[in-house]
């Protein structure tokens, strides 16, 4: 993997379409996407996994904190079973998808959400600063 050889950090995004969520296939879709990473990642040291539901990208819709936590916990469990328990504990799993200054605080409280992938909100300086300055030491902003 060229990015790994260049010592660059990589954010691998996984997420489902709205119809897949409504059909109860969120985990299946995300796990299938994760399988593609496992086959090519030589080391997880510089890898971050982002759960970014496609239905939430740029729509103003955001997963509830409970929905996001459920998927993050399932990803961590999948990593423990399919990579190693050590990698599952260490890998950062972040949330992206219509994150903004109004909804980040409840998401940040979730145990398995290690930080955020901020898109459009990063274009609004004050809002971006609010998120960045309020994230706990455990969390990360990418």
TrEMBL record:
It comes from the Eukaryota. GO terms for biological process: gluconeogenesis; glyceraldehyde-3-phosphate biosynthetic process; glycerol catabolic process; glycolytic process. One of its GO terms (cellular component) is cytosol. One of its GO terms (molecular function) is triose-phosphate isomerase activity. PROSITE patterns: TIM_2. Homodimer. Belongs to the triosephosphate isomerase family. This is Triosephosphate isomerase. The lineage of its organism: Eukaryota, Viridiplantae, Streptophyta, Embryophyta, Tracheophyta.
């Amino acid at each position: 993997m060229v990015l790994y050889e260049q010592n660059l950090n990589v954010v691998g995004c996984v997420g489902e379409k709205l119809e897949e969520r409504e059909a109860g296939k969120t985990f299946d879709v995300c796990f299938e996407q994760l399988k593609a990473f496992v086959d090519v990642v030589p080391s997880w040291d510089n890898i971050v996994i982002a759960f970014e539901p496609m239905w939430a990208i740029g729509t103003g819709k955001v997963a509830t904190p409970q929905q996001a936590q459920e998927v993050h916990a399932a990803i961590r469990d999948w990593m423990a079973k399919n990579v190693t328990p050590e990698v599952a504990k260490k890998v950062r799993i972040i949330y992206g998808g219509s994150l903004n200054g109004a909804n980040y605080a409840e998401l940040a409280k979730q145990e398995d959400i290690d930080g955020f992938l901020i898109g459009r909100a990063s274009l609004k300086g004050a809002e971006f600063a609010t998120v960045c300055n309020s994230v706990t030491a455990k969390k990360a902003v990418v």
